[in-house]
Amino acid sequence: MTWLDLPEDSVFGLANLPYGVFSRPGQEPRVGIAVGSSVLDVGTLAEAAGAAFAPVLWGPSLNPFLAAGRETWSLVREKVTEWLSDEAHRDLVTPHLVPLAEVQLHLPFEVADYVDFYSNEHHAVNAGTIFRLADDATDALTPNWKHLPIGYHGRAGTVVVSGTPIVRPSGQRKPRNEEKPTYGPSLRLDIEAEVGFVVGTPSKLGEQVGVGAFEDHVFGVCLVNDWSARDIQAWEYQPLGPFLGKSFATSVSPWIVPLEALQHARVAPPPQDPEPLPYLLGDTHWGLDLGMEIRVNGHVVSRPPFATQYWTAAQQLAHLTVNGASLRTGDLYASGTVSGPEKDQRGSLLELSWGGREPFDLPDGSQRTFLEDGDEVIITATAPGPDGARIGFGEVAGRVVPAVTEEK
Ligand SMILES: O=C(O)/C=C/C(=O)CC(=O)CC(=O)O
Ligand SMILES: [Ca+2]
Ligand SMILES: [Mg+2]
After folding, report:
1. CB within 8 Å of 135: residues ≥ 6 apart
2. Residue 188: what are its φ and ψ, rounded to 5°?
């Protein structure tokens, strides 16, 4: 129940309460919580209410709040729920609600380290088939795939918030049938629909964070678009993995949905065969039933389901730290491209166009293999909440703008 005038089906209802950073024209960015079509200026509200936790909500980023840890995350959530539910707080809270339409949303946290996994079996089989079976590989999955969540370290400094224009990257690329590489703007610019996990509580160098400690460290979830230049990637990636083909920009949604809001979205992960090594086992990890949607220029091109992800977020974190690598507040790790078994559930254009060989139609009559300048991609998602409510993740959007460099 709430005294707020919220539509029943709002994906930003009281069951959600995702955190972001907003500003009003001429004012400094600060922490906010999305509720209905408003942003709750939670830092100033907490101050007005005399809450002891108020200072962690004052900054221009979520990092102090993320660093405050699990007890504080729960306490603030409980308090905000009370403020928005109990009519007695109406006069206290109302002045701190700002219409969403009047604010600018910013990168919600300072990204410390960024890791991208490769944990969706449908995607890995598709990508392996397209990238490697065409050459000399005998299996679409590499021999290690079912033994560990494969990942690579990405570029934290180029993580940008939804809405940031994406400049078409330039670089080296060498088509299979050509002898030498050439330089120029990527001709195979792509997206990857992913789910991001945001670390709050750090760990010490040399310490492992086991599967069961996931919820002590990870605060919440966002959406990620791991923009990928397939021609640059295909030429550069062996043997060390993705480099410039993915480091030019990674977009995230402006709202971080707390794990606490996703209790009803938990699902059993798919069976894992062969059984993983003990450090990747535990009975406290789960998948999340997120239904994602990818739109290109307003047209839905795919609906990837996250529920069948092979490796869970807790296993990814356990693997990421099994060598003693420490976590920092603001670390972001992404699930890997989310694809389902069906054609219209594929999480990248690489898969939707089968390596560029099968152009697909947009309802406006045009066709695509990869992205053209001016194309806008928007990824959204929702998950089940309590009592039939839906939990919204907002959107991660980006429009492609022409390359800045001329052909050399
Ligand atoms: O299979 C490959 O060589 C490459 C795969 C990717 O580009 C995907 C990647 O970034 C990891 C992922 O998002 O699943
Ligand atoms: Ca990726
Ligand atoms: Mg990227």
Report:
1. none
2. -135, 60
CA nearest 188: which of 141, 240, 246?
A: 246
User: In this structure, which residue's CA is closest to atom 11 in ligand 1?
Assistant: 118
Per-residue pLDDT at 137: 67
pTM: 0.97
CATH number of 114-401: 3.90.850.10
ipTM of the complex: 0.93
* Ligand 1 site residues, Cβ closer than 6 angstroms: 116, 118, 123, 127-128, 131, 192, 194, 226, 228, 242, 336-337
Contact 62, 31 (CB under 8 A): yes
The pLDDT > 70 percentage for the chain reads 98
Question: Domain 19-106: which CATH class?
Answer: mainly beta
How far is Cα 133 from Cα 138, in angstroms, rounded to an integer?
6
> Measured from the CA of 230, which atom of ligand 1 is nearest?
7
Mutate to test the pocket of ligand 1, among 144, 337, 348 (most ligand atoms within 8 A of CB): 337
**What pLDDT, in 10s, does the model give residues 2-40?**
899 998 899 999 999 999 999 999 999 999 999 999 999
Domain ranges of the chain: 19-106, 114-401
* Residue nearest atom 6 in ligand 1 by C-alpha distance: 127
What is the number of the ligand closest to the CA of 233? 1
DSSP code of residue 100:
G
End-to-end CA distance of the chain: 62
Distances in whole angstroms, Cα of residue 383 to Cα of each of 37, 221, 259, 291, 335: 19, 11, 12, 6, 16
Q: How far apart are CA 292 and CA 164, in angstroms?
A: 20
Average pLDDT, whole number, for the chain?
96
Give the residues across from 291 on adjacent strands.
305, 382
pLDDT tens profile 101-110: 999 999 999 9
